[in-house]
Amino acid sequence: MSNLDQRPAPTLCGAAHHTGPVRELQRGREVPLGESTLVRRLLPTLGRRMVGAWCFVDHYGPDDIADEPGMRVPPHPHIGLQTVSWLHAGEVLHRDSLGSLRTVRPRELGLMTAGRAIAHSEESPRPHRNAPILHGAQLWVALPDAHRQIAPAFEYHAELPRVTGGGGLSATVILGTLDGATSPGTTYTPLVGADLTLAAGTDARLPLEPDFEYAVLTISGESEVAGVRLTPGALLYLGEGRTGLPVRADHAAAVLLLGGLPFEEQLVMWWNFVGRTTEDIERAREDWMTGSRFGEVTGYDGARLAAPAMPPTPLKPRGRAR
Question: Is 148 left (phi over 0), alpha (psi -120 to 50) or beta?
């Protein structure tokens, strides 16, 4: 998925480094995406720019698209990151410049590694008779410097491991490892992403890695996580040093858990690029606009996305400390 903002501000990735557990509730903001999709942007925010290597989170829906275009994200470029497509309802058709063509459905993993350069598009298959509701999340993972120039790749995993911890809690492991279950998705830093399903009356505790920092966001319903009541539209940052996470729900709910070792490298995120220097970003933008390096996405019914103008001042890479 793309950042479609045509006047994107430089995003200084990283944030204040907490060395222990915290409970910081961050409200997202609504952002239009494409022709008819409105998303809640939960990462980055002014208060929190990264959680481990997770650097971007959009939550969208549930939207009734039976009589609407649905998701329509034209071909656009990426460098230096991985994109994670995650659905609770609906379907998304992925195309990329490697020639990949895949329909991603609920609780299936579509994982694209941009590496040195890739382009892709995403759209709701038409007609929408079999999937009239669109609901899900799009996430980005920053690649560490040692791997950010790797060859691009796309992975699709229909079957993912599940964790059943009792007390009404079950989890699908999207990326990384949770409670001994490991996703088949390729990762380049120690991290975890998991979809937590909370049955009505859930009262459970999920084991965590104390070296990781964590955050949770509500996909649907209401829940209580680490003693904080959560509804859709906010991200709860939990910090580090936790060995377990208490979760409760009076009614059925779904929560995304994101975590990882704190990302210590300095980087900057601008538009759909994650780089280390102004020159990285300028070169990527120029290559996209001149039609080199990123390849071509074929089959999308529409024009590709033009890159916005670069900001007037150099992009300054930052680390976690603000």
Answer: alpha
Q: What is the mean pLDDT of residues 95-109?
A: 98
**Is residue 134's pLDDT more than 70?**
yes
AA identity, residue 187: T
SS3 at position 232: coil
- Residue matched to tokens 């994670």: 84
Domains of the chain with CATH codes: 11-260 (2.60.120.10)
Residue 277's contacts (CB-CB under 8 Å, 6 or more residues apart) are: 268, 315, 317
pLDDT tens digit string along 193-202?
A: 999 999 999 9
Query: Which pair of tokens denotes residue 36?
Result: 């008819």
Residue whose token pair is 């609770």: 88
Query: CA 296, CA 210: separation in Å to the nearest integer?
Result: 43
Q: Largest Cα–Cα distance of the chain, in whole Å?
A: 56
Contact 57, 234 (CB under 8 A): no
Q: Judge whether residue 321 has pLDDT over 90.
A: no
Cα(173)–Cα(165) distance, integer angstroms: 13
pLDDT number for residue 16? 46
